[in-house]
Amino acid sequence: MHKIFPIDLFDEITNILATNPDLNKTLASVMQKAKKATSAGAWSLVIGDGPFFKMASLKTSRNIRKLKPGTATGISGWVMKHGAPVIVQDVLKDRRFDGEADGFLNLKIKSLMCAPIKVRDKCVGVLRLLNKNTGGAFTDVDLKLLTNISFHAGALIERAFLYKKIEKISITDDLTNLYNIRFLNQSIEIEIARSQRYGSLFSLIFMDIDNLKKINDRFGHLTGSRVLIETAGLLQENLRKIDVVIRYGGDEFVILLPQTPRDSGFLVAERLRKVIEKNVFQKGNGAPVKLTASFGVASFPDDARHKEDLLRIADKAMYRGKFSTKNVVFAAK
Q1: Residue 168: what pLDDT?
Q2: pLDDT one-digit tens code per residue, 108-123
């Protein structure tokens, strides 16, 4: 009977990949977990000689080696060339096997499992798990775990590449330290491209604080600014590490939820609405404030297939609530 990896293992691995900017430490930490979870004897990474790893500052090591140009041979080379994951239960029965190209230190390779790391449709590396300690066979569930890791590793490398390209551009909001609209546009474009390549979904939430002007008029703009800062903190505390929170301007925020369908995005928005409604803002400053917010949710590609349309539809859904009852979540129509 094949074991099923617990959801929290996938979540833990996803969070590690999403939150640690050091690619060397991140991959080593994640692959050690994968090695233990699959009862593999060893792990390794074969990387190409492209610009992505250079920009992400990945270093070669005991487990990481660089594939020389024109030497994509063996099973690892086949995966690099075809961009497809594979399980080989007995390497001696596989004509693709190359003892030198597929070797790892002095380990005698009996079986292996490979998954490609892709960035912008190009295979830039191959993650490998070698030999079952139990003497058994790698399973489809094992391959799903490794493929999941390779998918997120590709996203991490692509994100590092993006950061380098736009590091000269200010991408954060001065008041809240959240990302700003410039970063939002880049992030949506990346998620759209990833969705088109892999068929994944993502959702967008537009949020507007209800009646912030009344707080500014009653308590002053300094209190209003502090409320915005506190709201930003609440959003970050109640979202996943992989979610992107944007200060869109004024009292509006946008939240990008990778790999999240609209129904799940709606539930996230509803949870945030309740968190804000229950919170007492500015408790320590002598002027406690209660407030609410209105939300609109849209999903790609279900509601829109272009960045501008997705933003417009989510914004329109939010304003339906803003001009009706307020303190409500509306999904795109």
Answers
A1: 47
A2: 999 999 999 988 788 8
Distance CA 54, CA 272 (A): 39
Two structure tokens written together for 142: 């094992």
The closest of 213, 240, 263 to 255, measured between CA atoms, is 240
Clarify whether residues 116 and 26 are in a common domain: yes
Residue 96 domain boundaries: 7-166
Asked, for residue 176, whether it belongs to a domain, the answer is no
Which residues are designated catalytic?
251
Calculate the alpha carbon distances from 95 to 44, 80, 82, 113 in Å.
21, 16, 16, 15
- Helix/strand/coil for 97: coil
Phi/psi for 4 (5° steps) reads -110, 125
Q: Find, among 138, 61, 134, 128, the residue nearest to 101 by Cα.
A: 128
Write the CATH number for 306. 3.30.70.270
Would the pLDDT of 307 be above 80?
Answer: yes
DSSP labels, 253-275: EEEEEET--HHHHHHHHHHHHHH
Instruction: Using the predicted structure, report yes or no on whether residue 46 has a pLDDT greater than 60.
Output: yes
Q: Long-range contacts: 183-188, Cβ < 8 Å, 24+? A: 183/244, 183/246, 184/244, 184/246, 184/248, 184/254, 184/256, 185/307, 186/162, 187/244, 187/256, 188/256, 188/307, 188/310, 188/311
Q: Are residues 233 and 197 in the same domain?
A: yes
CA distances from 17 to 92, 119, 157, 212 (A): 34, 15, 10, 37
> Are 218 and 268 found together in one domain?
yes
Instruction: Please tell me the pTM assigned to this model.
Output: 0.58
Type of residue at 41? G
Same-domain check for residues 136 and 27: yes
Q: Is 110 a member of any domain?
A: yes
CA angle, 5 then 46 then 55, to 5°: 100
Residue 122 and residue 216 in one domain: no
Same domain, 159 and 213: no
CA 89 from centroid of its chain's CA atoms: 31
Q: Clarify whether residues 50 and 197 are in a common domain.
A: no
Please name the residue ranges forming H helices in the chain.
7-19, 23-38, 51-55, 74-82, 140-166, 181-198, 212-219, 221-237, 262-278, 307-322
